[in-house]
From TrEMBL:
This is EFCB1 protein. GO terms for molecular function: calcium ion binding. Keywords: Calcium, Metal-binding, Repeat. It holds the Pfam family EF-hand_7. Residues 66-101, 102-137, 147-182 form the EF-hand domain. InterPro entries: EF-hand-dom_pair, EF_Hand_1_Ca_BS, EF_hand_dom, Recoverin. PANTHER family: CALAXIN, CALCIUM BINDING PROTEINS. Gene3D superfamilies: EF-hand (1.10.238.10). It comes from Oceanites oceanicus.
Length: 194
């Protein structure tokens, strides 16, 4: 059953404040879209929101994302309360940053996606995992892992300002401010321009 007008209005009002990159009309459209997608789904979470698979399908169909590992991380980043389900509020607030976030917000978001174990650092191992996962396998004689290790070294050389062998948020933020292209250095986790 679709949500009531009243419930929709309440959601739109509160999200109008928290999802500051959308106007009320847009929030209302996004909530309705959420509602439609949830209604079409046969998931057992459907009453509450998107489960992981629905969310991945949406990322794939709406934003052309194809990388499973990254989509999983995006899911975790949207799922603020860690209940394995994305509510209408998490959906709109997540999209606010995902689609229109300031550089500051996008830096935080990408850092969170890349910090696989949530310890506040992007470690050498995490970089390796993500790069190994997002680079196309080239059929070649040499060991692909070697090339990825080299990339990790280059990334650290360029971004690890305090030379502790891992990227803190401060390192990541400084690197991206100096060179915006580094924002998605470890995998495509934002929608492409179109």
């Amino acid at each position: 059953a679709a949500m009531s007008r009243k419930r929709l209005q309440q959601l739109v009002d509160s999200l109008g404040r928290s999802a500051k990159h959308f106007n009320k009309r847009e929030v209302e459209c996004l909530v309705k879209l959420f509602d439609t997608l949830v209604a079409e789904s046969s998931s057992r979470f459907a009453a509450v929101g998107f489960d992981r698979n629905m969310f991945r399908d949406t990322l794939h169909s709406a934003f052309g994302m194809t990388d499973d590992m990254i989509m999983d991380r995006v899911f975790h980043t949207f799922d603020r309360d860690n209940d394995s389900c994305i509510s209408a509020v998490e959906w709109v607030e997540g999209l606010s940053v995902f689609l229109r976030g300031t550089l500051e917000e996008r830096i935080k978001y990408c850092f969170e996606v890349y910090d696989l174990n949530g310890d506040g650092y992007i470690s050498r191992e995490e970089m390796f995992q993500m790069l190994k996962n997002s680079l196309l396998k080239q059929p070649s004689e040499e060991d692909p892992d070697e090339g990825i290790k080299d990339l990790v070294d280059i990334a650290l050389k360029k971004m690890d300002y305090d030379h502790d062998g891992k990227l803190s948020f401060t390192d990541f933020e400084k690197a991206v401010r100096d060179e915006n292209l580094l924002l998605e250095a470890f995998g495509p986790c934002l929608p492409d321009i179109k």
